[in-house]
Design goal:
heterodimer, A: about 150 residues, alpha+beta, Thiol Ester Dehydrase, Chain A, six-stranded antiparallel beta sheet, about 25% helix, B: about 140 residues, 6 strands, about 15% helix
């Protein structure tokens, strides 16, 4: 099978990607609560949330972070990933049931690593909702294989 | 009203350790169904242990912290976790800063595997509610 993965050498500084949209549903939140074990009232108690500034249940911040990680794979050809280095992230606005989010990403840094077969690619990432409001924003560091 | 740990009650510098959970292929499959993130057989996507770390935090036997919002995350992936590994977390509040009706706390959290090796580590910033003033005589 042909290898369509993109190596460190092929990824250019300044490349930008935009993913398709994805509507965040009640089912997503319920599944994520079960998977993560995070049953905080913010995400699970519709009645309590009526009395808060949000007015309704909101999606887990990490659910949207996880969804954007999947959206990244739909935004560009896959990188030759060896792992991830870390992330610096801000949760700026709530995502409510029925909101549609998408990812905008840009390559902002490339660095060699100690091991000669790999490099670190840093991406600025922004999650936008259907009103083009920024809901989450940050940077992720990906460890990407160099062309063998 | 359920009891909760409000901003005033948050103790700085106290180390807390959660119960452990084994990361199974079922967790990875559910996570992939939810996010469409890819993983080779046996691999655990990096964000999954982070998500499970939050759930483990709620299993500490203190009243749950009155979190109003998750503000920020600064996170390092130290090593890979594999399907079948058993993770737990330790946490320590390293700072608290009062605001008007709530306060910001920084929670330093570490995910460890069954050998006690650090897997992931970083800081969560949460907005935590202050206790409502009782309408007392």
């Amino acid at each position: 099978m042909a290898d369509h993965r993109r190596y460190f050498d092929e990824i250019e500084l300044g490349e930008e990607y935009e993913s398709p949209g994805r509507t965040v549903t009640e089912a997503d939140i319920v599944m994520f609560a079960g998977l993560s074990g995070d049953y905080n009232v913010l995400h699970t108690d519709a009645e309590f949330m009526k009395s808060t500034v949000f007015g309704e249940r909101i999606a887990h911040g990490l659910l949207c972070l996880a969804i954007q990680s999947g959206l990244f794979t739909r935004a560009t050809a896959p990188y030759a990933m060896l792992g991830s280095g870390g992330l610096r992230w801000k949760f700026k606005a709530p995502v409510k049931i029925g909101d549609t989010i998408r990812l905008r990403a840009k390559v902002v840094d490339k660095k060699d690593l100690d091991k000669p077969d790999r490099g670190l690619v840093t991406l600025d990432r922004t999650i936008l909702n259907q009103r083009d409001e920024i809901v989450q924003q940050g940077q992720t560091d990906l460890i990407v294989q160099k062309r063998p | 009203m359920t009891s909760a740990t409000y901003f005033e009650d948050v103790v700085v510098d106290q180390l807390k350790t959660t119960p452990a959970i084994t990361v199974t292929a079922a967790h990875v499959e559910m996570y992939q169904g939810l996010t469409r993130e890819m993983a080779a057989p046996g691999d655990v996507p990096d964000v999954l242990p982070l998500c499970m770390a939050i759930g483990l935090g709620w299993r500490i036997k203190d009243p749950p912290m009155a979190v109003q919002a998750f503000i920020a995350l600064d996170w390092k992936i130290v090593r890979e976790l594999r399907v079948g590994d058993t993770m737990h977390t330790s946490s320590r509040i390293i700072s608290k800063r009062p605001m008007r009706d709530a306060g910001l706390i920084i929670d330093e959290r570490t995910i460890l595997d069954q050998h006690g090796e650090v897997v992931q580590q970083g800081r969560f910033t949460f907005l935590v509610a202050k206790r409502q003033k009782e309408a007392s005589a």
